[in-house]
């Protein structure tokens, strides 16, 4: 199945504790051709309370069968003609989506109206794609929890919520011939997967670690660990800022800093008082070496993050926070302003592979 | 009659601001530097010891353009004037792109100035509504503009909307039929990112620009293909956090209205109450609706 005939995006609505998965069909040859069913898997930390499908072709909301196991949420969309939206309702705070479906173009999470910002100012590198874009097979059979012989994952959770009954088929480990449609996990040969009629939206899964006991003295080596997406490095910070509002606040505050190497740099601030999200006129404005980073507006809680990082060269630089030029404006108090950059890598000690590290059967 | 062509804005206030911009940008430059780098004459050059708005004693960019024959093409666009590509200050003055975000603190004068004045304009409009009429005015921008309550953005041909590359907002195949197999989500994401960067939470409503190229292509589609276009790409925009306005009519070029084209019933038919139209709520007012 060519994943290119389906476009998708994932959005979060923190205020509603909801994640929306938008699916747009592009199987188009002179006319639109429906895809049915469509399998969607997401790597998330928790199971949703419910999964509802909305579509222009469907009256009202429709429950979506789902299973959650091993940190992977699998959704079975009955059909996709033009456009489907799956609304995942979470019982608590929205869990982080660890890996997204991977058809081209490469996925990014896009904040929408009322949406939460992405964790990084720039789209973070996509997680490594599973080999060959592992297809999802038909799901008349249950989604197996693990390959045979593997230990149960620590985070495996039972389906819960109203959909539990729909997806609570008996779980059996696939044994090749017994399971007609095993979901291929990492390490599963791709040819075992069947994908004749499915629209794969991918799976980014990893097999659980298997214990291995080696003999003799432990061996190790030092390796350079590249930073993961979202890891950052604090370059400079300043606490207790008071901006604007006449004599009580400063007209501007500067944060000089020096880079020892070129880096992607952005700014963050914690708003203490004097500024509501809708009060855009009175928001202080932030400049990085003369480049405008935007107004300090709380988008999620009291935190603000520059929407875009700047690539700065080695040398001295300056972050400047200016009070808004508004007559009669209030003093805005910021608890802290920070300058951050992408994290550098670091050395770490890694155990060398032992003779039995090739994987248990 | 003057027709707007982007060469406006050379009034005394802007010329004074341009002087301030150049002096601030090049703090170490002296008369020799101005002459060598920008071809300023001795009798029309920048002086740090004179007020920037003293356009008789200090530099007067309008006079500079006239003397060099660049007044009809001050931005080096390649039409009119003599040796129109030679104005060394054209890059410093800069240009505005339409539709475009106002690049606050941008690398040229006009974008920096427009960013500054745009904010003042918005603030004064709001203050006028509150103080004089006790009403809250909703400010909408044509483009991706900061400080607004709402922005609209045309999806035109010849754009640079896809991270600097042209987005084919009306994708066609070799037969000039709709190519619904192509996704525009990458370009919509790019617009959404720019909107977040420049306009914060202000909703962005996109619409299909009916320039001659796209209007010809769109009007050449069958009714079914027109319907498919809206059924595919309105959801794509919405999936990326944008709102999309349906094309009803334009007031020029004698183009057919949606009613003439037979597409209007589809717009009504595809917006039943059961699909819960997505409205835009600003300052307590639901001011627009765009839905599949």
Structural notes for this entry:
The complex is a heterodimer of chains A (361) and B (292). Chain A is 1% helix and 38% strand. Chain A has one helix and 23 strands. In chain A, the strands form six sheets. A five-stranded antiparallel β-sheet of chain A has the order 1-2-10-6-7, with no helix packed on it. In chain A, a hairpin with a 2-residue loop joins strand 6 and strand 7. Chain A starts with 5 loop residues before the first strand and ends in a 10-residue tail after the last strand. The relative contact order of chain A is 0.15. With 292 residues, chain B is an alpha/beta fold. Chain B folds into two domains: 82 residues, no CATH class; 176 residues, no CATH class. In chain B, 37% of the residues lie in helices and 9% in strands. Chain B contains ten helices and six strands. The interface between A and B is large, with 48 and 46 residues.
């Amino acid at each position: 199945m060519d994943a290119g005939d389906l476009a998708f995006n994932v959005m979060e609505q923190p205020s509603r504790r909801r994640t929306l998965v938008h699916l747009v069909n592009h199987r188009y040859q002179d006319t639109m051709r429906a895809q049915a069913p469509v399998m969607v898997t997401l790597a998330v930390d928790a199971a949703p309370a419910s999964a509802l499908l909305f579509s222009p072709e469907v009256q009202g909301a429709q429950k979506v069968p789902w299973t959650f196991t091993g940190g992977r949420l699998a959704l079975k969309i009955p059909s996709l003609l033009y456009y489907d939206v799956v609304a995942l309702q979470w019982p608590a705070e929205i869990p982080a989506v660890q890996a997204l479906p991977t058809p081209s173009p490469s996925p990014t999470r896009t904040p929408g109206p009322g949406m939460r910002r992405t964790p990084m100012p720039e789209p973070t590198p996509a997680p490594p794609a599973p080999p060959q874009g592992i297809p999802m097979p038909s799901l008349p059979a249950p989604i197996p929890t693990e390959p045979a012989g593997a230990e149960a994952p620590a985070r495996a959770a039972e389906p819960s919520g109203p959909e539990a009954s729909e997806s609570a088929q008996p779980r059996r480990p696939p044994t090749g011939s017994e399971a007609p449609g095993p979901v291929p996990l990492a390490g599963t040969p791709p040819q075992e997967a069947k994908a004749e009629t499915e629209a794969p939206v991918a799976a980014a899964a990893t097999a659980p670690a298997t214990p291995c006991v080696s003999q003799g003295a432990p061996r190790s080596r030092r390796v350079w660990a590249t930073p993961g997406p979202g890891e950052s490095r604090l370059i400079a910070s300043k606490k207790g800022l008071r901006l604007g509002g006449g004599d009580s606040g400063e007209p501007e505050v500067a944060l000089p800093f020096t880079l020892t190497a070129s880096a992607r740099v952005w700014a963050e601030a914690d708003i203490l008082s004097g500024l509501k999200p809708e009060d855009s006129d009175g928001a202080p404005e932030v400049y990085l070496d003369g480049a405008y980073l935007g107004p300090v507006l709380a988008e999620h809680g009291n935190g603000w993050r520059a929407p875009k990082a700047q690539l700065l060269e080695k040398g001295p630089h300056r972050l400047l926070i200016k009070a808004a030029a508004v007559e009669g404006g209030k003093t805005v108090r910021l608890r802290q302003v920070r300058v951050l950059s992408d994290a550098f890598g670091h050395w770490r000690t890694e155990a060398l592979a032992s003779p039995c590290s090739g994987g248990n059967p | 009659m003057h027709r707007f062509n982007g060469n406006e804005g050379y009034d005394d206030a802007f010329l004074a601001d341009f002087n301030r911009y150049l002096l601030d940008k090049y703090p170490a430059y002296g008369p020799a530097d101005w002459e060598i780098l920008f071809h300023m004459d001795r009798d029309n050059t920048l002086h740090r010891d004179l007020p920037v708005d003293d356009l008789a004693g200090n530099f007067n960019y309008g006079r500079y353009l006239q003397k060099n024959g660049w007044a009809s093409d001050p931005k080096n666009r390649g039409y009119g004037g003599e040796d129109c590509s030679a104005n060394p200050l054209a890059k410093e003055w800069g240009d505005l792109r339409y539709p475009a975000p106002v690049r606050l603190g941008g690398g040229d004068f006009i974008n920096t100035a427009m960013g500054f004045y745009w904010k003042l304009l918005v603030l004064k409009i709001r203050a006028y509504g509150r103080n004089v009429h006790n009403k809250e005015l909703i400010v909408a921008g044509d483009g991706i503009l900061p400080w607004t309550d709402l922005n609209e953005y045309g999806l035109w041909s010849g754009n640079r909307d896809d991270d600097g590359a042209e987005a084919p907002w009306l994708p066609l195949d070799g037969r000039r039929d709709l190519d619904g197999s192509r996704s525009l989500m990458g370009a919509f994401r790019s617009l959404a990112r720019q909107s977040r960067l420049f306009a914060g939470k202000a909703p962005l409503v996109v619409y299909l620009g009916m320039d001659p190229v796209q209007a010809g292509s769109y009007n050449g589609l069958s009714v079914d293909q027109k319907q498919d276009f809206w059924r595919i790409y309105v959801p794509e925009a919405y999936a990326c956090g944008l709102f999309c306005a349906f094309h009803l009519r334009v007031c020029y070029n004698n183009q057919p209205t949606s009613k003439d084209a037979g597409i209007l019933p589809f717009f009504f038919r595809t917006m039943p109450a059961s699909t819960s139209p997505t409205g835009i709520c600003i300052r307590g007012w639901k001011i627009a609706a765009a839905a599949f």
